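I would like you to sit down with the record closing this message with an eye to the fold:
=====
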Amino acid sequence: MKIYTKTGDDGSTGLQGNYRIDKSHPRIISYGTVDEANATLGIVLTHSLDEDVKSLLTQIQNDLFLVGADLSNPNLNDTKNRVSLEMIENLETHIDKFETELPPLTNFILPGGDESAAQLHYVRTVVRRAESQTVLLSEKDEINSNCIKYLNRLSDLFFVMGRLINKRKNIPDVPWKI
């Protein structure tokens, strides 16, 4: 099987269930941005990371494939490959756990520090964009609302993990100064 099919040469693409839509449709933009976040997360995983961080990020990469699959399936009666509340709760559990290692925030901080932490902050912004685009999609088409919740929580987790990596490497948060 060849990687190219030529079926999208007219500006359309196929979805699960043999649907075809324009490549500019909010559904494609939404799950395409989820894919971008996943690819960017792959860059973070090229760094030397603590095993708990690496393991979680690898799990999130798999979860992001599921988010993309969910968003690519317009048939909400099809219950396979759907983002679940358990996935969201798992992110919350990790946020809570990692925050116990961090000092409380007293002001806004700037993204940066260790390269892997800075890249996680970048992934966070891509996830925020994916969330916004998924909200736009939900205004046009019915979707699994857990996708929005998952992306919202994921960006929070990446913020915390960026701080965590810096803390573990003894790099202080950089406060925003006006």
About this structure: Residues 103 and 157 are 16 Å apart (CA to CA).
